[in-house]
Write a structure and sequence with these properties.
With about 260 residues, the protein is of the alpha/beta class. The chain has helices spanning about 35-40, 60-65, 65-75, 80-85, 150-155, 170-175, 180-185, 195-205, 225-240; strands at about 5-10, 15-20, 25, 50-55, 75-80, 100, 110, 115-120, 130-135, 135-140, 160-165, 210-215, 250, 260. The strands form two sheets. A seven-stranded mixed β-sheet has the order 6-5-4-3-2-1-14. Helix 8 packs parallel to helix 9.
């Protein structure tokens, strides 16, 4: 069994807890150490028992608390070399023995977890998503995705739980307050996945037999949870896939610890 919980999710900070009886890790730590400690304790987990923090890429909403957690609880930090080169100066110093490097596309183990980092299209040095395997189950985390590719889609397939970005509503983005250059970045090939595209991807995967989905990394300005949920819900309904009967669909909130899911 794998325990999954989105602690924080959104453009202002991200952190996901994944654990088994033997291993406890965070995927990203983009909020303060204090907030992460409080969130972990709220789901019955101790930060001092963390075995690793895995970093998807170097943007601040994914690394803000990484250095503080590593120093405070002597936690190893795992990232690829491109991400290390871009983020290390921002972390405030990591003990040498806690600086761990993986290669994108090459799997590695942390105790009873097998982790496969896969390439994602985003405007960072070497950004990745993660497949996490344990006990015959597969959890996939894929956010900060500019567009969907065949290779990326293949990494999402056959997941027992998929956490997928549903960042923005295109109409809200277009009429919103962001400057045109930022709107172009978000909608670009290395930007963020829209609600509509998240819905199409989830509907496609549901037709292939996947059943459990969480959407996250919602924009504070260009989205809101009910809209993201309804957009994906409608895409599923268009394929005659019923939420609650055929699939489960949930939204990870910005500042609220999510439901603990056992996979």
């Amino acid at each position: 069994m794998i325990k999954f919980c989105s602690l924080f999710s959104g453009s202002s900070g991200n952190a996901i807890f994944i654990g088994t009886e033997k291993t406890k890790i965070l995927i990203d730590a983009g909020v303060s150490k204090k907030k992460i400690v409080q969130a972990l304790k709220s789901i019955g987990e101790e930060p001092g028992e963390l075995n690793a923090v895995l970093v998807s890429h170097e943007h601040n909403d994914h690394i803000r608390g990484v250095g503080f957690l590593s120093r405070g609880f002597d936690v190893p930090v795992y990232a690829n070399e491109g991400t290390w080169m871009s983020m290390e100066s921002k972390l405030g110093g990591i003990r040498t023995y806690n600086r761990r490097t993986f290669d994108t596309g090459k799997g590695f183990e942390i105790y009873d977890l097998f982790i496969h980092p896969f390439e994602i299209p985003h405007d960072a040095s070497d950004p990745v998503g993660f497949n996490i395997y344990a006990g015959g189950k597969k959890i996939t985390i894929a956010t900060d995705i500019g567009h969907m590719t065949r290779t990326l889609l293949s990494n999402l397939m056959e997941s027992d739980l998929l956490f997928l970005e549903s960042n923005h509503d295109v109409d809200m983005l277009m009429v919103g307050p962001y400057p045109w250059s930022l709107k172009q970045r978000i909608m670009g090939k290395k930007g963020h996945l829209s609600n509509e595209m998240a819905g199409k991807v989830i509907a496609y995967l549901a037709e292939k037999g996947m059943r459990n989905f969480i959407i996250g990394h919602l924009s504070k300005v260009n989205n809101f949870p009910e809209l993201a949920y309804r957009t994906v819900y409608n895409e599923l309904a268009s394929k005659k896939i019923e939420v609650g009967r055929d699939v489960s669909l949930n939204v990870a909130l910005r500042n609220e610890v999510g439901q603990v899911v056992a996979v």
